[in-house]
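# step 3/5: fold
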Amino acid sequence: AWLGWKLNNKIVIKTRTSFDAGQTWSTTTFIPHAASTYTSADPSLAFDSNGNLFLSYIDHSDTPIAGGVYLSKSIDGGLNWGTPVEVINVNADVNQYPIDRPWIGIDNSGGANDGNIYITTMSPNRVGPTAPFHPYFMRSTNSGASFQPYQYLDATNWLAGNLISQPMPTPAVGANGTFYAVYPSYLVSQSFFAQYIIASSTDGGNNFNYNTVFTTSSAANDSLAKGGYLLRTNPADVNHLAFFYIDNTYQELDIFMRESLDA
């Protein structure tokens, strides 16, 4: 799935599917806008344990401010897509516009929350959002038919704070169904240094526990850098997590990895 141009449709999400491990690909399918004035961005894909494919993406307009994050489901591997469901509206948290960078994770554990769909977002880099800033968490417990109201992913003593205006969460779901997400934080009352925090939930997002991934005084300070980061879980070891990020510890930007062996 990617961002592409379609005549008279502005930017749309386009998809192609391979059923032979990437040797050949289907013709391009595009995802219709929720409204003709919208433009799309930030597609993210995940399969559930039954082979259903889910696509989350932004579809919105700036003038007037409308739209949100949507989820579409495919039961044939991405050749056809169902009617989109709204995950979170751009006006759900007043003036915070919490629809940027939607990432998706699905519980495929076979446990009590198997099939739960989790999507995380943040506020965009634009005029409007005001401190304190938060990472956002949404979940569906009915295979994407609907989503429950958003929650802030951060919490007291584990807040993202007032200085990082886009505390993007990167989510992952463990083989045992545990939900994880890492987000950045800088709030001096919590830590003198900036830090990455990991939130985890073993009950489908009803309750969260928090730990510090690490604290840092350095950053990806190149204005041209895409300062993203990524969390992954090991499907063969429920205690093994890996976190990838960009940092200038050695006076230039490098890719780093940190691991946890105790969940």
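# step 4/5: annotate
The longest strand covers residues 237-247.
# step 5/5: archive (pending)
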